[in-house]
Amino acid sequence: MCVPINLRHRVGFTLLELTVAMTLLVLLALVAVPLFVGATRGAQIRTAAQQTVALLRYARAKALSLGRPVLVSVDRSNNRLRVLVPAEVVQSQRNAVLDTMPSSGTHQVSDVELTDEDWRAIAGEQLEPLDPDAFAPDPSPMGQERQLPDGVTVAALEDLTTGEEVNLIAFYPDGSASGVRLVLQGQTESVTLEVTPLTGTVQVVTALPADAARR
Fold first, then answer.
1. Which of 173, 171, 168 is nearest to 200 (CA)?
2. Second-level CATH architecture of 19-97+130-205
3. What does the pLDDT look like over 41-97, one tens digit per residue?
4. Which of 35, 45, 200, 215: disulfide with 177, CB 3.0–4.6 Å?
């Protein structure tokens, strides 16, 4: 007895099915890629905002512990921030550390790494008026220069009282500060930070889409 063979049994996909599957994959890619890129860009500016807030709060704490004014320099052309302390404080602390070292002649001032505990041992009177030339970069680890992530820029740094553009933020030993508004601009959103003059408090004020922030 002959058993019929199903010659219509099919292996694989037809050209139409492959075309439909490829079309769906392309559509999914068109939707997913912009979402992924937007999320990445959003993460960059949020990271930049967190790092900036941390640096400003560190500068305020440094002014309180030193008993001296501390500046934060904002380099808008290179999107960098740096903590500055009185140059005489830097030099006196380095000299104190060098005096405790053997006079082998192998140590250089630039080789000395200072800790936050070293800085807490220093006190002095507030400098008035503040002269940026009398300040030097903070050599302690937490005060090192911060480079903003790619795609994030300092769009504005304004005095809260006058509205004038500035490039320095001052923190004083009594906890107060020069009030400023700092705007970080990303490709998808903008974050505004404010430093309150009376208390030196650093806070995030607004986070808006970048196109809305420009209007």
1. 171
2. 3-Layer(bab) Sandwich (3.55)
3. 568 898 899 999 999 999 999 999 888 899 999 999 899 999 998 887 666 655 555
4. 200
